[in-house]
Specification:
binds magnesium ion; Transferase(Phosphotransferase), domain 1; alpha+beta; binds adenosine-5'-triphosphate; 292 residues; five-stranded antiparallel beta sheet; Phosphorylase Kinase, domain 1
Length: 292
């Protein structure tokens, strides 16, 4: 049986692979670029020089093309520093960042590894806005990010509480930070709301505005993708949202409404999916644009 020490030895094979994987960092052009932004990334990478960077985060998130994109955003003054990770999801890491004018930002950096994006094409195939585009993986990720940007923009335009999208470049999405000085706002899943029935009506109203006004369906609307901020629900994570013309749009809507209804049920409420669906499809929607 191997002793404990043996287990702790790093695997030389893996080390060699990982060394080679990062060789590009030492190429003069990338070295300069990385030195340029190293300071701005200290919050997520620790202090000091890049040699000792946390390789796992690095591999998953900060590949060459991502660093180039961040470099550009930093040079353009969109981002001053990336401060700390807020969350790591299946598809992306989200970081708290600071803009050059000093305001807080949320920066969502999508993973560009192949495995993650196998599931995404069903949301893009069949959406007339994305026909004829390249299906190569990295390009698919970039399309995905642009799609989230546009979906958020469209929802924002209808007056919905969603983070304002500010900039997107490659696999990086820069948006309004939802939270306060201390931390990001919690997900609806992680809070107990005082008045579940009011919140449920609010969520259905948001789904109705998304469907009737934005001509979209969120397609991953649940307590996991709603932040509870200053006493109101805010919708996030709109990458997979599709237009109402998408062949599966209604199926996605039924799934969204079912999840919201189930959440309400767990809060002690009682609502039928069918009634909630009718409310979303045909119920009145407020003119939020002029209410602001
Ligand atoms: N604008 C924002 N302000 C504050 N926090 C945010 C913002 N956007 C995202 N987050 C945080 O990051 C988490 C992940 O974001 P999002 O749901 O958009 O990414 P995701 O990769 O799709 O995640 P998952 O796969 O877990 O659904 C959110 O649950 C939330 O906690
Ligand atoms: Mg999410």
């Amino acid at each position: 049986m191997p002793s404990e020490e043996d287990w702790d030895e790093p695997d030389p094979d893996m080390m060699m692979k990982s060394e080679r994987k990062h060789e590009w960092i030492s190429e003069p052009k990338y070295k300069r670029m990385f030195e340029d932004i190293e300071y701005s990334l200290q919050g997520v990478m620790g202090k000091g020089r890049f040699e000792w960077v946390d390789r796992r985060v690095f591999d998953q998130v900060f590949d060459r093309s991502t660093l180039l994109a961040l470099h550009k955003l930093m040079q353009q003054g969109e981002i001053e520093t990336i401060d700390y990770p807020i969350a790591r999801g299946k598809e992306a890491h989200v970081f708290h960042a600071t803009s050059s004018v000093g305001g807080p930002l949320a920066v969502k950096i999508f993973h560009t590894t192949n495995a993650v994006f196998k599931g995404l094409s069903k949301y893009i195939d069949g959406d007339p806005r994305f026909s004829g585009l390249s299906r190569r993986h990295r390009e698919l990720v970039n399309i995905w990010v642009r799609k989230e940007f546009r979906n958020l923009k469209r929802m924002r335009k209808s007056g919905l509480r969603v983070p304002e999208p500010l900039m997107n470049l490659k696999n990086v999405l820069v948006m309004q930070f939802i939270g306060d000085e201390k931390s990001a706002s919690p997900r609806l899943k992680d809070v107990r709301v005082e008045n579940p029935s009011e919140v449920f009506q609010d969520l259905l109203e948001m789904a109705a505005v998304i469907w009737q006004e934005c001509d979209l369906v969120h397609a991953d609307f649940s307590e996991y993708n709603v932040l509870w901020h200053e006493g109101s629900p805010w919708v996030i994570d709109a990458g997979q949202a599709v237009t109402t013309r998408h062949p599966s749009a209604r199926e996605f809507l039924v799934r969204d409404v079912t999840r919201l209804t189930e959440w309400y049920g767990r809060q002690g409420g009682d609502a039928r999916v069918a009634d909630s669906l009718v409310r979303v499809l045909d119920g009145p929607v407020p003119d939020l644009k002029s209410a602001d």
